[in-house]
């Protein structure tokens, strides 16, 4: 059934969608039957007769499913014409959309471009430089970002047309055929009758192209490229003649740009328009050049423009919508209130390019993209959370020799490369930390999700009524309707922005028997019902940031649970048999102050990959050594006498990448000498060390390090500056010495340095050649430090200097108006903040 669904979803017509909807419903109903039977069969107290009865009921439902399938396939011809050429119709549909876009009101040849002036100059400069080599420029951006507009302006520029002997523009599209593409390139560059070219083979075309083009300088534009094979094929046709030939590729996929080989290449990513640029473009569409916006419309007009989020296509479309509205403030406010639905309903000019991007996604990525619809608009979505949700929802399947987490990471990068998801936060080690979905794509995902019953979003007190959607997201909406019947098929419930007291009742739980995901993060929740353990299918459960003081004992029955997130609550211990959660992968428990005591039996949980916030008592430090799949461990309240056993346990964890250790007593040294953490990438130790363990110099993979309360006597920089991949370093109450020195070629990759509460530090010297990549530096509460580091002027890459709670005499030395002696050392830094 899933294979039929994959094939059917590629169709463009409405009849294909009806067919797909019915298949999708049958798939979900089949999964519900299996889930319900699994729940009964696994219950230890269900009688033999109950098992027989449930088997009989499942058999009846399977027969019903089979009957529905038979009926659906009998009616297949009514949905899809078996003799139709789907690829041809899709190609025509795509070309029709592209033709409409090319003629849209913001691509007219005579118009000036808004917001792309810098890009325009850079592209023209790249095309017309003196380099004799073949050069490829890839322009990357999401659908509607203005790639074609910009390149058309460049292509038609008089200087560019004079510079090249021949120019050709080829629209590729996602449904291209290599043979047809070669013929199109030949037609564009050769300027001979099309009929003659159509009769030639690819080898003949290559020979025909290479001969005359050897003496010419040409510009070739390959517009809307979706597949790396395009360049791999076309480059074989192009001569290497030393005349400065140029190729421009526009694409939504950064992997296409990265795959360009066999020529000099560079990539340029189009940024969104600023608000000022968006306003300028909007004004040009709605008003005459010399006509100001009427005063009574300025506020509503600016709010409308902000709704477009810098997407040129959206700004132009909204501007076109406003033209017939005249100057009626009532009409403009009506547009403002309905702009989201208006943008999505304009299928030709907005949904066209965006929906095309969605349609091109591989089938598994479609569902991953649609799940983003459940998050509030403009929300920063944490990478780890999104990946865990995908896995819990069953959207990720293990690859050959790959864990589901690795496959999910690849899916995320694919969506980012296709500009369907945007990176919003990057960690200091340059990994994606959080992402977001563009406003228009978010609306599109909501629209598609609702149409497919994938999910439904209820916002701002919108009435919640039972629906066929398998997932619902409550965003500042009432949850009272969840008490009603009609939610029996619900798979996932997400709650955002509900700050009134939230009560999960037993009646509500009866509606949620098939629930796989329950995300109540930051809800006002003080207790959970004792029947929580009845949610047998639950795989992801988050009560992070609520006000819980205890968890129900029945949670031990959630044997399918993969993620349990109870961070930032008022819990002190787990009051249920956690060892029964055999499938748990992520146990997130870190509280605001204290760690959580974990019951006996943790060693049996062989799938655990993440444990945070656990109390490192004598039982725990022994048991944790059996968790060989752990990649992240964060523990608190470690006693000095348990440190050696802990080291032995950690040494069994070959996959461990992140380790945090918090000591229970800051005055007693903990012995970590026997630790062997060679694979660590992140390390945080808060506790007395007195000296750095010998293995510090060997953790070459370490990118992020925090040391606190360490009471080190020797300068830690002498060891730490040798770590080849360290990009983030924080020391707080870690060093009792008076002098720090950074040597030449020390900290070669360090980007962020934070020094806090180094009470005895008086001098700090930075040699020329140290910290060559430093971008951000914080100095806080170092009360005896006399001056900024000697040699700070050598740090040419430093962008931000933050000084917090530093003595007055220290700050005065930086102020040129007060004759500051140290101003010469910091004048090159773009941003200096003193608090």
TrEMBL record:
<dbReference type="Pfam" id="PF23559">
    <property type="entry name" value="WHD_DRP"/>
</dbReference>
<protein>
    <recommendedName>
        <fullName>NB-ARC domain-containing protein</fullName>
    </recommendedName>
</protein>
<dbReference type="InterPro" id="IPR002182">
    <property type="entry name" value="NB-ARC"/>
</dbReference>
<keyword id="KW-0611">Plant defense</keyword>
<dbReference type="Pfam" id="PF23598">
    <property type="entry name" value="LRR_14"/>
</dbReference>
<feature type="domain" description="Disease resistance R13L4/SHOC-2-like LRR">
    <location>
        <begin position="489"/>
        <end position="803"/>
    </location>
</feature>
<dbReference type="GO" id="GO:0042742">
    <property type="term" value="P:defense response to bacterium"/>
</dbReference>
<dbReference type="Pfam" id="PF00931">
    <property type="entry name" value="NB-ARC"/>
</dbReference>
<dbReference type="InterPro" id="IPR036388">
    <property type="entry name" value="WH-like_DNA-bd_sf"/>
</dbReference>
<dbReference type="InterPro" id="IPR058922">
    <property type="entry name" value="WHD_DRP"/>
</dbReference>
<feature type="domain" description="Disease resistance protein winged helix">
    <location>
        <begin position="374"/>
        <end position="444"/>
    </location>
</feature>
<dbReference type="InterPro" id="IPR042197">
    <property type="entry name" value="Apaf_helical"/>
</dbReference>
<dbReference type="InterPro" id="IPR055414">
    <property type="entry name" value="LRR_R13L4/SHOC2-like"/>
</dbReference>
<dbReference type="InterPro" id="IPR044974">
    <property type="entry name" value="Disease_R_plants"/>
</dbReference>
<keyword id="KW-0677">Repeat</keyword>
<dbReference type="InterPro" id="IPR032675">
    <property type="entry name" value="LRR_dom_sf"/>
</dbReference>
<dbReference type="GO" id="GO:0002758">
    <property type="term" value="P:innate immune response-activating signaling pathway"/>
</dbReference>
<dbReference type="GO" id="GO:0043531">
    <property type="term" value="F:ADP binding"/>
</dbReference>
<dbReference type="InterPro" id="IPR027417">
    <property type="entry name" value="P-loop_NTPase"/>
</dbReference>
<feature type="domain" description="NB-ARC">
    <location>
        <begin position="117"/>
        <end position="288"/>
    </location>
</feature>
<dbReference type="GO" id="GO:0009626">
    <property type="term" value="P:plant-type hypersensitive response"/>
</dbReference>
């Amino acid at each position: 059934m899933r294979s039929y669904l994959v094939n059917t979803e590629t169709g463009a017509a409405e009849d294909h969608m009806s067919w797909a909807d019915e298949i999708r419903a049958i798939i979900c109903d089949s999964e519900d039957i299996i889930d319900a039977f699994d729940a009964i069969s696994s219950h230890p107290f269900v009688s033999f007769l109950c098992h027989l009865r449930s088997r009989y009921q499942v058999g009846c439902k399977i027969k019903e499913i089979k009957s529905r399938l038979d009926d659906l396939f009998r009616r297949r011809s009514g949905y899809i014409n078996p003799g139709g050429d789907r690829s041809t119709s899709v190609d025509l549909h795509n070309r029709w959309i592209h033709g409409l876009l090319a003629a849209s009101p913001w691509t007219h040849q005579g118009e000036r471009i808004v917001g792309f002036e810098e890009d325009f100059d850079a592209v023209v400069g790249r095309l017309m430089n003196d380099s004799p080599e073949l050069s490829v420029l890839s322009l990357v951006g999401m659908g509607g970002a203005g790639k074609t507009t910009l390149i058309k302006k460049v292509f038609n520029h008089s200087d560019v047309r004079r510079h090249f002997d021949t120019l050709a523009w080829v629209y590729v599209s996602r449904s291209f055929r290599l043979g047809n593409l070669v013929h199109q390139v030949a037609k564009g560059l050769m300027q001979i009758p099309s009929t003659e070219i159509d009769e030639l083979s690819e080898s003949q075309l290559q020979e025909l192209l290479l001969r005359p083009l050897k003496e010419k300088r040409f510009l070739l534009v390959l517009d809307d490229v979706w597949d790396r094979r395009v360049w791999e094929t076309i480059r074989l046709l192009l001569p290497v003649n030393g005349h400065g030939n140029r190729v421009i590729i526009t694409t939504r996929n950064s992997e296409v740009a990265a795959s360009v080989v066999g020529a000099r290449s560079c990539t340029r990513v189009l940024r969104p328009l600023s608000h000022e640029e968006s306003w300028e473009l909007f004004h040009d569409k709605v008003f005459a050049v010399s006509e100001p916006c009427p005063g009574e419309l300025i506020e509503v007009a600016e709010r409308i423009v902000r709704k477009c989020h810098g997407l040129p296509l959206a700004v132009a479309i909204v501007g076109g919508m406003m033209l017939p509205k005249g100057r009626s403030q009532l009409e403009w406010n009506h547009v403002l209130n309905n702009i989201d639905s208006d943008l999505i309903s304009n299928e030709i000019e907005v949904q066209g390019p965006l929906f095309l991007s969605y349609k091109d996604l591989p089938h598994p990525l479609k569902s991953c993209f649609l799940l983003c619809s459940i998050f509030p608009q403009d929300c920063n979505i944490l990478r780890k959370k999104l990946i865990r949700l995908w896995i819990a929802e069953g959207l990720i399947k293990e690859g050959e020799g790959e864990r589901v987490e690795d496959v999910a990471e690849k899916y995320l990068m694919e969506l980012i490369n296709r500009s369907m998801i945007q990176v919003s936060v990057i960690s200091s080690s340059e990994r994606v930390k959080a992402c977001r979905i563009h406003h228009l794509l978010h609306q599109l995902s909501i629209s598609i999700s609702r149409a497919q019953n994938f999910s439904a979003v209820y916002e701002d007190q919108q009435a919640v009524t039972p629906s066929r959607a398998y997932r619902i997201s409550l965003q500042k909406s009432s949850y009272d309707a969840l008490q009603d019947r009609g939610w029996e098929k619900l798979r996932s419930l997400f709650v955002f922005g509900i700050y009134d007291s939230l009560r999960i009742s037993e009646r509500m739980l009866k509606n949620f028997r098939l629930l796989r995901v329950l995300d109540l993060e930051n809800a006002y929740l003080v207790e959970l019902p004792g029947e929580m353990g009845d949610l047998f299918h639950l795989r992801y459960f988050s009560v992070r940031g609520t006000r819980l003081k205890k968890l129900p004992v029945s949670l031990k029955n959630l044997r399918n649970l993969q993620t349990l997130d109870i961070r930032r609550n008022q819990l002190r211990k787990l009051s249920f048999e956690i060892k029964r959660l055999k499938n748990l992968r992520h146990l997130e428990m870190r509280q605001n102050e204290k760690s959580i005591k974990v019951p006996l039996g943790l060693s049996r949980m062989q799938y655990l990959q993440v444990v945070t916030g656990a109390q490192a008592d004598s039982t725990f430090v022994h048991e944790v050594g059996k968790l060989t799949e752990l990649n992240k461990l964060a523990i608190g309240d470690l006693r000095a006498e348990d440190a050696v056993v802990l080291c032995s346990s950690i040494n069994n964890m070959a996959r461990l990448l992140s380790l945090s250790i918090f000591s229970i007593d800051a005055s007693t040294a903990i012995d970590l000498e026997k630790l062997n953490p060679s694979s660590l990438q992140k390390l945080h130790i808060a506790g007395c060390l007195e000296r750095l363990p010998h293995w510090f110099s060997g953790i070459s993979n370490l990118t992020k390090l925090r040391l606190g309360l360490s009471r080190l006597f020797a300068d830690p920089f002498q060891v730490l500056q040798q770590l080849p991949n360290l990009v983030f370093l924080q020391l707080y109450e870690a060093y009792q010495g008076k002098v720090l020195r950074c040597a030449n070629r020390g900290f070669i990759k360090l980007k962020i340095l934070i020094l806090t509460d180094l009470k005895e530090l008086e001098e700090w010297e930075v040699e020329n050649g140290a910290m060559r990549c430093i971008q951000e530096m914080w100095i806080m509460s170092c009360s005896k430090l006399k001056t900024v580091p000697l040699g700070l002027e050598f740090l040419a890459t430093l962008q931000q200097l933050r000084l917090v709670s530093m003595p007055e005499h220290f700050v005065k030395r930086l102020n040129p108006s007060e004759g500051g002696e140290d101003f010469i050392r910091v004048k090159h830094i773009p941003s200096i903040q003193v608090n």
